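Suppose you are handed a protein chain with no further information: no name, no annotation, nothing but its sequence. What can you learn? This example shows the usual starting point.
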Amino acid sequence: MAQKDGGTQSAPRTESHDPAFPEAFLQFMRTGWREDPISVTPLPETPNYAKRRAALSEAFPGETLIIPSGNEKVRANDTDYHFRPGSDFFYLTGDRDPDSVLVLHPTESGHEAVLFTRERNSKETDRFFRDRNGELWVGRTHTLAEKSTELGLETASLGHLGSALAQSAPGRTRVLRGLDANVDRAILAYEPDRQKPRDRELAWVISELKLVKDEWEIAQLQAAVDATVLGFEDVARILPADRGVKERLLEGVFGLRARHDGNDVGYSSILGAGPHATILHWVRNTGVTKPGELLLMDMGVEGHNLYTADITRTVPVSGTFTPLQRQVYDIVYASQQAGMDAIRPGVRFKDVHQACMRVLAEGLHDLGLLPVGVDEAMAEDSTVYRRWTLHGFGHMLGIDVHDCSHARNETYREGALAEGYVLTVEPGLYFQPEDDLVPEELRGVGIRIEDDVVVTADGCRNLSDGLPRTSSEVESWLAAQREAGPRLPS
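A reasonable first move is to predict its three-dimensional structure. Written in structure tokens, the prediction is:
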């Protein structure tokens, strides 16, 4: 793997169990290989990446900006996690490789963008078969010229990154930190700790650029949502009404759809059967469904260009809600609808939250659970209704499931919505099995409904309206999926 502090190459990446190679074998491996050229064309979305870099350049004139893709992470011993580039890096480049670093060098007219990336481990050296990053191990990789053509971006060898970082001017350099420890250490030599707020500003500016999605991004999100709808259907079709199945079977069925129709799941799938539905981030998925109980499914496909869906549905395993389950479900549905009705440009994020939460508080009051009136329960010095909901109404969605997370509070949580924002609307009610303040028949009931919406000129559009939302529609949908039977992705 190329070092980052000069043009030299480090030793090939090998492991202790790799065999030693005699010279006769090495000589034999160096001969008889044909070079098959590959056709590389610019990605159709490269103008989008260039436009984003231009917007970032405009925000920081005269400064050097450094955005790494991140490094591979060890899962266990000599096995790595499947690599996914840092979201902000991918948002600006479209590059998917580890260890790459985007550097925006200041010029009189803006910035010159250079992507420092690994050189191809071609058959010109033994690395193609001796290095675990060599082409016989990982497949054909692009040359610098091929990657430049594909991404519409100047490229340079990763081995030259060290000298480029050394030329960064103190006080005029910003780094997106936490992605590449080598880059962080290199710039620490030139940037004293007191300057780190400058780096945080780079992070929030990128996050705020991501708030408004263009038409291409919305199309990517719609594709991820559509694949997610199919995944929910796949799960419903193999969910029996009369016996239990493991949560992990359902997780695996959805995962098949995510890998087939997209890049992967956008986050760890939550399959909460029965009381597991009351655990907000239940991802162990070690339980079993049970007729008569509910199943909460929070799942999303991450598309080929890394934009992700985030959808939740709660269904009755037997096919029909009990009267009390339906009552709670209808409260959550009414809350979600109130939130959707409130969304439009200029409306504050927290006002949508309040619209959803008031309906939940009123529903809890009708269930006889609130120790005080609705207004007192909603007061900022109380919020006791949140015992049974905890989380907010939703979050921004995009190339991250929790997109734009470094945006300033006054722009995001305290800010107003704008046309082109994409966000989730996901109220829920959760009654823990050990909660002695609720009737026994409510304990272990958890219900969330979550959809992905884009803010339009006069309201919002539900990208995930391919799935039902009302209690009666959910029952009909589940029956129809079961009647259709299992299917393989095609």
